[in-house]
Design goal:
four-stranded antiparallel β-sheet, 114 residues, alpha+beta, 4 helices, elongated
Length: 114
Amino acid sequence: MRILRTNIKRLSVGAAVLGLALGGTSLTLINQAQASTGGQATEQTQTSNSINLSQSDAINKFNEKYGSKSIKGIELKNKKNKYIYEVEGFDSEKEYKVKIDASSSEILKAKSEN
C-alpha cells in the first residue's frame, strides 16, 4: 500500500508540472489521485494561484526595473499558495534580482548588489 501511495504522489506531482507546462493551473488530476487513495482533496481558487504573466512578460518587467541586462535565469516558484517569478540578471558591475507575482504582475521585491 505504501508503494501505491508513493506512486500516486509522484503521479500527482507530474500532473501538476504538466498542468503548469501547458499554461493551466488545473488540479483535477491531483484531486482525483488523492480521492482514489483516500487522501483529502483540496480545493484551490484560481484567483489566488493563477498564472497571468508569461516568462517573457516577467523578463520585460525586470527590464523595466533595471534596463536591458543579461539574464542569468528565471524560475517560477510556488510560495505560500502564490506563483512567483524570480528573475536574475547581471551586467559588468552588479547582479540584480526581482520577484514578481505571476498573478497580478506586481514586483514584490527588487535588489541589486555588487
